[in-house]
Write a structure and sequence with these properties.
By secondary structure, the protein is of the alpha/beta class. It contains five helices and five strands; from the N terminus they run E-H-E-H-E-H-E-H-E-H. It has a five-stranded parallel beta sheet with strand order 2-1-3-4-5, sandwiched between helices. The longest helix has 18 residues. The radius of gyration is 15 Å and the shape is globular.
Length: 156
């Protein structure tokens, strides 16, 4: 089945599935998004193993997958490739949110089909600001309003 003929799947744009193995980073993501996007339903997985099968069984599917790259087991690059290999998952927005700034990592993520690549800042205020901006942008492309205090996303 080609991507053009893949069955269209329903998305729940208020659901963000976070794949993050670091408990500390997962807690920071939860704190940041609870404050900036309290309307979102967050779900956390600490590894990518079995993720594609799980997504294929969901109806609706999460609208955004927030993906760390450096994880034990099936790493983020392999998860991204597996998600993008399935036409049924083409509508899920994949935002890579990772600590790596290596240009080769960025290039590989975009080549594999990432919709965004965002570096995790160490400063929590900046971490929160960057994450809010990314979600405001992607939710805006899906017709969702930005978080309170935010502005409509601009496309350049």
């Amino acid at each position: 089945m080609t991507q053009a003929h893949a069955p269209r799947r329903r998305l729940d744009n208020s659901w963000v599935l976070v794949v993050e193995d670091s408990q500390e980073d997962a807690e920071a993501i939860e704190r940041a998004l609870a404050s900036s996007h309290p309307q979102l339903r967050l779900e956390f997985l600490d590894r990518g193993d079995g993720l594609v099968d799980r997504l294929l069984g969901e109806d609706p599917m999460p609208g955004i997958l927030l993906l760390d790259l450096n994880m034990p087991g099936l790493g983020g690059h392999a998860v991204l490739q597996a998600v993008r290999a399935r036409p049924e998952l083409a509508e899920v927005t994949v935002v890579v949110f990772t600590s790596s700034t290596a240009p080769s990592e960025v290039d590989a993520a975009y080549a594999a089909g990432a919709d965004s690549y965002i570096y995790k800042p160490l400063n929590f205020h900046l971490f929160k600001t960057v994450l809010k901006g990314a979600l405001d942008y992607w939710l805006g492309t899906k017709g969702q309003p930005p978080a309170p205090g935010g502005s409509a996303p601009s496309v350049k």
